[in-house]
Amino acid sequence: MLSRREIKEILLAAGIVLKKHRGQVFITNRRVLTEMAEGGLEGWGREAAVYEFGTGLGNLTRALAQRAGFVFSVEVDPQLHRQALRLLRDLENVTLVCADGIENGRLRSDLLQRFLSAAKQKSLTHFLFASNMPYNVSGVVLVSLAMLPSEFTRCILMCQREVADRVEAAPKSKDFGPISVLLQHCYSIKRLFNVARDCFYPKPEVASAVLRFDRKRCLPSSKLERIFDIINGFFGMRRKTLRHNLRRGMGLGAEEVDALLQRFGIAKGTRAEEVESEKLWALAEELLSR
After folding, report:
1. Partner of 246 at 20 to 30 A CA spacing, among 134, 143, 208, 288?
2. How far apart are CA 59 and CA 84, in angstroms?
């Protein structure tokens, strides 16, 4: 594991200036790396293949590679990629790719398929998505989790603690929203542990958390995109009622909206954030089918 001092020396020697807009921070705490890797690979070990989004300088990559059968890691920054190639050259089960892992607001499907093809050629049977998630693209990555190929049955993510709060939020809380509904429908979600700011270099402005996602169901991406758009409409004006948002934001007539709400047992004065997650999902599916 690279220490804080070693990371600073590597960056200085290579003339690398970290880009704040990319949210580049590196985990420098051995316990965090170990528990994140072991939490993601629990019960799988060397039978697992890992797609890592964001190599950085490879601290998490190494922790994963020491426990998994294969790690395919993608890094957008060419300077960091070159350093990772050097630092991880002793690991025979790691493939490093320099590329933007995001395209058109979603994780790149061609890279995911390239990973799956390589992993299946190695006869690996479990597939993990892992990331010390760059905070500037957290929204894109989280929505994309729901649309990962069906082979991915588990994800492990480091994210901002406030993002973790939104993902795990229950109805009637200020953090409950569209991303809560989407990810709770597709995954069982568990916060493994919180992470203090001083476990990173450079030190971020906010605390973090590690979340594990275990897949419950997989739906076609095209359907998920449309359902997520509908659910976003439910929360379009948070201080307004669901009835208001259905009428104004989605252009439904008053009688049609009232009939829908009655059918799903939702009172007229209820806001979307007060409705159970699965009931909102069922309502969205009903609207999609029309």
Report:
1. 143
2. 9
